[in-house]
Amino acid sequence: MAMLEIENIYVSYGMINAIRGVSFTVDRGEIIALIGANGAGKTTTLHTISGLLRPKSGSIRFNGTEITRVAPHKIVSMGIAQVPEGRRVFSQLTVLDNLKMGAYIRRDQKEIAHSLQTVYGWFPRLKERQNQIAGTLSGGEQQMLAMGRALMSHPQIILMDEPSMGLSPLLVTEVFNIIEEICKAGTTVLLVEQNAKKALTIADRAYVLETGTIALEGKAADLMNNDRVKKAYLGE
Amino acid sequence: MNDFLATLINGISLGSMYALIALGYTMVYGIAKMLNFAHGDIIMVGGITTFTVMQYTNMPPWVAVLAAVAVCTVLGVVIEKVAYKPLRGVSSLTVLITAIGVSYLLQNVALLTFGTENKSYSFSFLTALNWQINEHLIIQGSTIVNVVIMLVIMVALLLFVHFTKQGKAMRAVSEDNGAAQLMGINVNATISLTFAIGSALAGIAGFMYIGTYSQIGAYAGTMPGIKAFTAAVFGGIGSIPGAMIGGIALGIIEQFSKSILAQFQLSALADAIVFVILILVLLIKPTGLLGRQIKEKV
Ligand SMILES: Nc1ncnc2c1ncn2[C@@H]1O[C@H](COP(=O)(O)OP(=O)(O)O)[C@@H](O)[C@H]1O
Ligand SMILES: [Mg+2]
User: Fold this and answer.
1) Are the beta carbons of B172 and A90 separated by less than 8 Å?
2) Is residue B249 part of a domain?
């Protein structure tokens, strides 16, 4: 059984049908890339999984449990975390408080402290700046904070929405390396990207989203050699 | 000199009450992004509760205040659940009109049950606290109590929002409700908590109202509500210290305008000053003294 199963979901904003019959699955331990142009419906898909949006129809199951109508805060408790597009760190709170917000659903202080050390291990910059107000961090640091914050809930799966957006090429490489490490350490990753080349490099499988429907799917390595993908997303 | 001091002190006393009410507006606005225009009427309910306990039982004043706080807290949470929660996500104008409806409802229920006449009551313990500074200057017991309560609550609230998990979650919701939900914060529960706190403070303000004016009636909440709303806007809506500064400033401005206008037999105009201030702030600095620019979601 797949860890996350999205089955034929339809999502709309009023009259705009943003997602029209999308289905895909994510298995435990995988990195799955969901690539697509701006406006294809990637963020809408992630928001629907996290419960911030309700699908008009279709079903989302997590470890076999229906979560389609579950409240967002409960979905986090079940083990699904999200790094939202544009980071959305709490700019008035300190770095440390942002990380603690990530652990909001957890009670065991010892385990929280342990997660904090793990996050600081991946992002040493966050430790150096733990008492700084998050709004004063650079874009790259905010991205790391958003990732660290999501990890603080100790999720089974982490949904990442365009983590490379607005970062320098050097930082993009660093962020993608860390995503691979996060997966190796046992957290499943659903990675949404416009940077298809980078995403396909680290992903096991990928889905291509075009105007609200899945246009292509397959092994990441195969998709990289697919003519249509090459032309439309890899700029070759 | 003594006149000046007396006016200033009265202003601070009144301003402390406005500050407490403004806190309710500002916190609810910060979390739920709505103007709860029924907030003033919750003060009236707090005042009537205080009055009723004092008049018809032999309980000490603190029991009356506690009763007012309890009644207002429950009332605030229920109003939010019944009237505002179903409107989440619809246009803010709809919510505003609903809030005005709730305000009329509360006033009319009060008119029915409490009557149309204002009723008088003065706390003997407040008079006992009166403090004679010199021949001409006396600090009222109600002033001392108002200022002390306001300061204690302000410090407690600041400690709460800056140092507790729930308080930080509130600030997170206030800044970005969607991101807060992604942290596992229950936004509905946070909004309920905010209404509970704001309404509890309105209950205390109801007691302050009787302490200050020695009377209470069904329309008692209207003017303090509007003035405190102005204070919240003046200080920067959404900001807790802003509510305090705005409240005190407005109380002082009101008292001085009253005493100046009185010399020209125009004291009836004093309340209009408040609205002039509201309009000026909205024109010149809509974010108020301490307010932050609210980022529009793109
Ligand atoms: N809040 C919204 N209201 C109306 N339409 C929206 C909203 N958010 C997104 N859309 C529309 O839904 C479609 C998918 O958007 P989105 O999921 O953000 O795409 P992506 O993340 O792939 O760039 C787009 O056509 C977009 O204009
Ligand atoms: Mg997007």
Assistant:
1) yes
2) no
ipTM of the complex: 0.95
Distances (CA, A) of B77 to A192, B73, B80, B199: 40, 6, 5, 8
Overall domain count for chain B: 1
- Encode pLDDT of A1-49 as tens digits: 899 999 999 999 999 999 999 999 999 999 999 999 999 999 999 999 9
Q: Is A88 on the interface with B (CB under 8 A)?
A: yes
How large is the average pLDDT for residues B215-239?
Answer: 93
Per-residue model confidence as pLDDT tens digits over A113-172: 999 999 999 999 999 999 999 999 999 999 999 999 999 999 999 999 999 998 999 999
Q: Would you say residue B105 lies in a domain?
A: yes
- A29 sits in which H/E element: none
For chain B, say whether A153 makes contact (Cβ under 8 Å). Answer: yes
Alpha helices in chain B (DSSP H): 2-32, 39-56, 61-79, 92-114, 124-128, 141-163, 165-175, 177-182, 187-213, 222-235, 240-262, 270-284
Structural domain containing residue B51: 15-221
Enumerate residues 6+ apart whose C-beta is below 8 A from A183.
Answer: A29, A30, A31, A189
Please tell me which of the candidates B171, B175, B182 has its beta carbon nearest to residue A72: B182
Ligand nearest to the CA of A48: 1
Nearest beta carbon to residue A73 from set B165, B176, B185? B185
Across chain A, what does the average pLDDT equal? 95
Residue of B163, B181, B182 to mutate when probing chain A, most A C-beta within 10 A: B182
Closest CA to A193 of A88, A85, A89: A85
Q: How far is the CA of B173 from the centre of ligand 1 (A)?
A: 23
Q: Which residues line ligand 1 (CB under 6 A)?
A: A 13, 16, 18, 36, 38-44
